[in-house]
Amino acid sequence: GPDAAVGRDAITAARRGLMGPIRSNGNTIVGPCSMAKELVPDELWMLIDSLLPSEPPKPNGGRPRVPDRAALAGIIYVLKSGIPWGMLPKELGFGSGVTCWRRLRDWQKAGVWHRLYRVLLDELGKAGLIDWSRASLDSATVPAKRGVQEPAPIP
Q1: Longest dimension (CA), the chain
Q2: What is the pLDDT of residue 71?
Q3: How confident is the model at residue 17, as a pLDDT?
Q4: How far apart are CA 106 and CA 122, in angstroms?
Q5: What is the pLDDT at residue 126?
Q6: CA torsion, points 107, 145, 130, 110, in degrees to nearest 10?
Q7: How far is it, in rounded angstroms, from Cα 114 to Cα 99?
Q8: Long-range contacts of range 46-49, CB-CB < 8 Å, 24 or more positions apart?
Q9: Which of 77, 111, 119, 129 could form a disulfide linkage to 124, CB 3.0–4.6 angstroms apart?
């Protein structure tokens, strides 16, 4: 039944290092372990925070917005664990799966992931952690120019 699926997914999440044991009255239970900070360390958050769009205005009020770091941790949790968006446990503090999915969609439309990719490449390059001797390019990374009559010679 549905309870079996929930139990199976909780075990999978625990095995993947996404949840850890917490002591409660001497019994060990599975629960969040500062998961937002584990999934989005401070160093990474400092790079990402400035790339995110500002919160849209709410002229008619509404619910408080789930913090961006928590939503990002929820996105990472879902992508890392492989669970469906709708099964993201609210108890972990990431907001609902729908909230995280919408934030992922909005950030994609805003170009956040492309900018983050560039920032991370720059950081890795500055640290000398990119081995350029084993690099390759394709038209997904570098657009092929139309109208070129013959290929450029390979050095």
Answers
A1: 74
A2: 95
A3: 46
A4: 24
A5: 94
A6: -10
A7: 21
A8: 47/116, 47/119, 47/120, 47/123, 48/72, 48/112, 48/116
A9: 129
C-beta neighbour count of 69 within 10 angstroms: 19
CA distance 18 to 71: 15
Give 10-residue mean pLDDT values along the chain (155 residues).
46 44 41 72 93 90 91 96 94 94 97 95 93 79 67 72
Q: What is the pTM of this model?
A: 0.67
DSSP the chain: -HHHHHHHHHHHHHHTTSSEEEEETTEEEEE-SSHHHHHS-HHHHHHHHTTSPPPPP-TT--SPPPPHHHHHHHHHHHHHH---GGG--GGGSS--HHHHHHHHHHHHHTTHHHHHHHHHHHHHHHTT---GGG----TTTSPPPTT-SSPPPP-
